[in-house]
## 1
Amino acid sequence: MPVLELLQRRIAIAQELQSVVKTMKVLAAASIHQYEQAVESLIEYNSTIEMGLQIVLGSAVYQHHAIAASPRKLPRNSPLGAIIFGSDQGMCGQFNEQIVRYAVTQIQHLSIDSSQLAVLAVGARVIPVLENAGVVSERNFAMPTSLAGITSRVQELLLHIEMWQSQMQIDKIALFYHKLRSNISYQPQALQLLPVDNKWLQDLQQKRWVGATLPTFTMDWSQLFSALIEQYLFICLYRALAESLASENASRLVSMQASEKNIEEQLAQLLAQFQQERQTAITEEMLEIVSGFEAIRAG
């Protein structure tokens, strides 16, 4: 009986774990959908910003600024500010290791000296992985735990980028994050946040306006252009955070599916062992009853 009691306890524990894993799978799937919707909601907003830039860049005043005519090119070995998005929570497989490997490889291709590199880590669990790769993060930001926390985190990152530019003369900023491909897959992504891609600006300037009338503006050109670029930067950072969070939950979903399979296999083995032990115990009890009956009858 002690063996049966031990097996019953192990079966109960396995069933509890199975319930927890199923709950975590549901939560991960719901989170993926939530962050996917957040990314999709940026499409229309980004389109609005691009339309605004199209008007501003196509105006006569733009010719005096000549931004696209003389594109800004930074030296190859100029300082780089890298923002690497990982996770704060565990049970997401090789999520942090993969993004660090990708970021380090991309930075090495740029031939950036360590003295010219500044790194921000978003997510506590990515820090030790960076340290193991020989990369020191000057500051760590926590990953938002919900959609409501993304906006404030973006604002904090923008303030730090502004500090990089004003105090450290870092004008080249790159983002490294995971981009969701499906509910169970993702891939690392790199985005040059600054300087803004001049080809993109030129394409917007040359793009044909689809409306019947061309909008005008009375606001100062420089202020309006700067405000639109700030919104573009906001969108890029918001998308990076939302994509990374969706990918983190996709990785967690895969881990939970593997855990659920292992638990089911272990539970099946425990139940089979329990049934075998129970049948053995019943057989032994029946033999004892029969033996006792025969002893009484013989006596």
## 2
Amino acid sequence: MLCAQNPQLPIPAGMARCRWQATTAGCPVRLLLLLVLAAVSGTLGEIDVTIKIPIAVAENSTVNMTCEYNLRNMPLYSVKWYKSQNEFYRFIPKEMPSKSVFPPLSAKVDLNKSDEHTVVLKNVEADLAGKYRCEVSTDAPTFITRMESSYMHVVRLPEGNLTVRMEKPRYALGDTVRGNCTAPPGNPAANITWTVNELPVNSSYIRNIPTRNVTDNRTISIAGLEFELVPESFSNGRLRITCRADVFHLYDEKATVVLDEERPRLASVLGTRESSHSRSSGASDATSWLLGLTIAILARTR
């Protein structure tokens, strides 16, 4: 009771008189002053909570989830962690033990490494992907509660090599370059991008090829490339094509092929011309020799 009516005083209709008692049996003056000061200073009802969870983690890895808070000198009552709507970890400093876990994630919580700010999950599996929430509450006299949430993906990383296949090894100006890039299966499927001579490829040059599902919910990613060559396409007579596949910040692989420009063989053309000239010169010499021989024979017969 914050106050009690004094039965010895007359009470006008619609009013109540209170006798304040600054004793342990009455209203705690210090509590009232604390509430008034908090309200005047603007801190009542204001606490800061920040949740830090990786956007994605690899399957079977260990995850540190952090809940930072500023209670502005108010005492902490509890820190609770939820996945979706299910509480799985609780920290209450006044209780013994101060840390508690709850199914279905109780076996995944590393109690020795978890505390009032951090909860550690071990051997994370695909079904642990989802929305996580941290809820912080202050103790008496304010009893303020605030929560923040964040989503975490659990990734089954691709296993194997990234492969690039092109239609042919040489291309001439005006040709259409065609090829595809295949990323090994993963969950989620890898995102594929292309560069030509270190420059990003226009999206209109990329062909969408349906992905293929394999076992254990993993998917193979395939991306095609198709564009026409112009004089600016080649760099020093070569075309450097790179395929890149990534999954969040956890997987990043590249594969590169170098294609040569197909040009006319100037040396062969010159050689052909020289050979033709040599043959023509030889024929002329032979004709002249035969003509001279014929004139000599005719002169003798006369």
## 3
Amino acid sequence: MTEVLPSIPGQQVTGSTLYELRRLVGELARTGRPAFPGSQPVSFTRTHTIPELLNEDYFVCEKSDGVRVLILMVLTPNGPQTYFITRKNEYYLAPYTCFPVPNNERFDQFHHKTLIDGELVIDTEPDGRQVRKLLGFDVLCVSGTSCMERTLESRLGYLNDHIIRPFNRMCRRVSPDYARNIPIIAEMKSFQRSYGVPLLYNEVIPKLKHKSDGLIFTSVSAPYSPGTCQKIIKWKPAGENSIDFKLRVIQDPIPQIILMVWHGENKYVDYGSMAMRNEDWLSKFSLIPDLDGRIAEVVYDPKYSPPALWRFMRFRDDKPHGNHVSVVDRIIESIQDNLELDELNQYMPQIRDNWKRRHA
């Protein structure tokens, strides 16, 4: 089944306003550049990651299957404004969405120069309704003051106390008509200490109303780091490992979809063929216009249509490029040097004992 990603609420920003917002975000994130400054995880490997978890404090949360966004909050002459920033570095002005500062029961003072990190997911309620939810999991800046050098525990406290909790209090207190127009609900991601993987899988993940496809381990002591961060580690079961490639269609003589890997700038190199059966082309891909050049997420499935290894999962039109070749190499290494969940759980007692020993 093809998974549907949540849409970004609001109107896309262009022109000089977009330029100024990108400049401001580069300033708040301390990159000095207008590019998307969100941190990106590396893939889990047994060789590198297990020693990290044994010797350093990490928090762990479930990996939601959604759309990554940064959220910028600013005050303007037109009032408070909230922008959702995609990995394509697109900015969307969200309607009816503003985040009040804490300890403001009149809800007439709002965040300015605040930048947080999160993910949009679609929650499916028991009655079938679909709800767009923002899951907050980090913060870069609050009211113009950087939080990036703080510990993860401190950053999560700021995120909850200064942003998520006041927002939810406001949503409960405003008129029902106004609340219905707010395009998101918001909550914190559930973080556990690194040895809490069994708790996540036994208690947290079964209660989720959206799809989860793995775990994210984040160092407690490491600062927030824009770009690829070695201290944020993504674990997926072997059957869930996926890569984003750019597609190219050829007829040789039967149709094939070539997966191309990104080498930086605008350079792509052929990587291999996508796993595809004859009926896949006839019933699905032949009917899709403009297939060439789209970004697709493919999942590792060597049994689907050998010798090809990667089966189509969904398009990722939210991403400007496929995964960089260095990321692809790390994912391949992860597949070859990975742990299944039961193996990972076997390390939990030792990880817990080492954690408690460090804090004794």
## 4
Amino acid sequence: MRLPDLDLRLLHAFLVLYEQKNLRKASEELGISQAAMSRGLAKLRLAFDDPLFIPTARGVEPTPRAHDCVAPVTEIVELAAERLLPTVPFDPETSDRQFSIAASDVGELVLIPELMRTCTAWPGLRFNAQRLSIKSLPEELKSGAVDVAVGAFPALENAIRCRRLYTEQYVCLVRSGNPILSSPLTQARFLEASHIVVSAGVLGHIHGRAEQALLGMLPASAVKLTSPSFLLSAMIASETDCVLVAPSALARFVKGRCGLEVLPCPLGIDPFDVVMYWHERVHHDPANRWLRTLIAESFASDRAA
């Protein structure tokens, strides 16, 4: 196999020029002269046997061959930087990093306060909470817009790095004065009650299975409200005589806060695994590894409590 006469600096220059679409701007970003940038482009054109970038009035325009090469060249450069360059350990005491975490409203309630409490010793660290959506999440993880996601998205587990955190169960939430508390909650009484059903909508979350099971078993007239938010649904359940089927993590958070009682769910709704997701690109990144360890430890301590 004959390899092209290319080094990592040339490949990096290719990516910068692809992004800037202007020789002067690309050379300034790389800290080299425009003449050196032009010589590098000549070498790239020879190696790829393609013009790669066509001059225009405003700069240059990538050719179809250049578009095709961006993904593999990016992968090569990132892999080399990740595996070959010296790794700087992550130090939370000196870092001012803002970590972006995508989670459902339940995940935000359970995870974010715990992380903020844990990180009070490191005042420079900050967090950005983002809502989950399976449609945008893979790209957000790939681009770095999201550092880590927490949820239950089985469709993602073959394409994204993941780690199981714990197994979640469903329970029922009702207000403390709800008449349904007058006797044990049997399946028959459950089916006769009024309900709030949380909709997974376009999120692609595994809760969609529970949603479909509930809508398939309950009379249409019994479903008084559907909502995309577990937290909003819990607040409404605390003000009405409706039953809300929700993950036990939400029950632990709202119990004692909102006048809600927790009951076992009389239906055979399957439990599900709550999983942490991240992209292969940051698998060895010290800051991301530190965050993942912190999240795993936070859930482990919460389960043990």
